[in-house]
Design a protein that fits this description.
Layout (H helix, E strand, L loop, with lengths): L1 E7 L2 E5 L5 E6 L4 E5 L2 E5 L2 H8 L2 E4 L9 E2 L2 E2 L6 E4 L4 E3 L6 E2 L2 E6 L2 E6 L3 H6 L1 E6 L2 H20 L3
Length: 155
């Protein structure tokens, strides 16, 4: 038996009993199944079921758990949002954490941090928040380049 999980109103993730998986889309002409092994078109749901066997629609459990604040990821479970801008949260105690990725400049140079304490972002020169580590590293790289340019021309 194959399982389907709703993605949108016209698309499903299909996990076949054979172990293969892909995305099934409803189109005006029928259905299209896309997987790493290729694309297959079907005229109707019966044709899809001939290919995959009986399909059961699995309902995903939407968790009330917050995994981000305003698009910035958080690393803790069971959080309480303190503010959206800046994105701050607690884990139930008095310590505030800053959501997202941050760059912190310590005496020995820049370092990256994921959801540091808000206190740390205030005690040191900091940049953030960023939605992912790549954006943060790109920004820190440009800051280091600017610092090196200033140092080379004697500012």
């Amino acid at each position: 038996m194959s399982k389907m999980f709703h993605l949108t109103s016209n698309s499903w993730l299909v996990r076949a009993s054979s172990g293969s998986a892909g995305i099934l889309f409803k189109t005006d002409e029928g259905f299209v199944f896309m997987s790493p092994s290729g694309r297959q078109e079907f005229t109707d749901l019966e044709a899809v079921q001939k290919k995959f066997g009986k399909l059961t629609l699995e309902v995903r459990q939407d968790e009330d758990e917050v995994s981000q604040i305003g698009g910035y990821p958080v690393k803790h479970d069971h959080i309480q949002i303190h503010s959206e801008s800046p994105p701050l949260y607690t884990t139930g105690g008095k310590v505030l954490f800053a959501a997202g990725y941050w760059g912190l400049k310590f005496p020995n140079g820049w370092t990256t941090a994921f959801c540091p304490k808000q206190k740390t972002t205030q005690e040191y020169v900091s940049v953030g928040p960023f939605r992912n580590k790549m954006e943060l590293n790109n920004h820190i790289g440009s800051l280091v380049t600017q610092e090196n340019l200033k140092a080379s021309i004697g500012e």
